[in-house]
Amino acid sequence: MRDLWRRLTVEFHRGWYLFYRELQFRAKLTLFGYGWNIVSQLAAAIPVVFVGKQLNLGGHGAEIPYEIHALTGVVFWGVFWDAVILPMDLAFKSRQVFRRVPIGNMSMIFATVWGLLLNFVVKFLFVAVVMLFFFHIWFKWELILTLLVGLPALIALGLCFGLPFMSFGTVYQDVRYAVGFLGQALMWTAPIFYRVPPKGWLTTFNKL
User: Fold this and answer.
1) What is the pTM of this model?
2) Nearest-CA neighbor of 42 among 83, 70, 22, 19?
3) Confidence check: pLDDT of 208 > 60
4) Residues 6+ apart with CB under 8 A from 156
5) Alpha carbon distance 163, 100 (integer Å)
6) What is the DSSP string of 67-127?
7) 84 and 186 in contact (C-beta within 8 Å)?
8) Which terminus of the chain has a smaller tally of CB atoms within 10 A, N or C?
9) What gap in Å lies between CA 69 and CA 77, rounded to an integer?
10) Which residues fall within 8 angstroms of residue 23, CB to CB, at 6 or more apart?
């Protein structure tokens, strides 16, 4: 047990190093650094939110504004999809490190989780500011239960897909680009920009 704990500690610190190295790498090569990662995802959601509101995809008599429903869905979808693509991105950008230091899958998991949590916190704070200052509403207590149960489940589910792709994405860049394109398509199958009706074929076939 002591050896296992020591190994997990080493993998934890290696994961933090990979995550911090990625932040430094991004900050040195871009003017806005980490901000591009957040702005790009949220900016891509704004036109879709606008179209969804015009088409009344949120339905009638909703308890919360459609904009909040969509933005919150984008945040949670981002957690899942970041867990899919971040291992490939980290592995590709850390190729030189792999040649000098043996890095295990556990280190990549820790590094991915660090990146996921940072992305989630920043996006969640953005949604909270929008809710408070533009709509004058706040989160319900049920969201806490959703975070405690749903967030780890989304991360674990995303890693189940992301880790197998990691090796292929490091060698073949086509895999990285194809997975990124696939994410944009799959986002429309998740109940993010529309509310799933209680009955019907959409509820039957779409388990997301």
Assistant:
1) 0.79
2) 70
3) no
4) 83
5) 21
6) HHHHHHHHHHHHHHHHHHHHHHHHHHHTHHHHHHS---HHHHHHHHHHHHHHHHHHHHHHH
7) no
8) N
9) 12
10) 33, 34
**DSSP of 22-49:** HHHHHHHH-SSTTHHHHHHHHHHHHHHH
Q: How far is CA 77 from CA 50, 96, 156, 187, 200, in A?
A: 18, 31, 13, 7, 23
Provide the token pair at 173. Answer: 């860049």
pLDDT band of residue 207 (cuts 50, 70, 90) is very low
pLDDT score at 185: 75
Return the closest-CA partner of residue 88 out of 153, 154, 8, 183: 183
Give counts: helices (H), strands (E), the chain: 8, 0
149-205: pLDDT as tens digits: 788 888 888 888 888 887 777 777 777 778 877 877 777 777 666 666 666 555 555
As a whole number of angstroms, the distance between CA 95 and CA 114 comes to 19
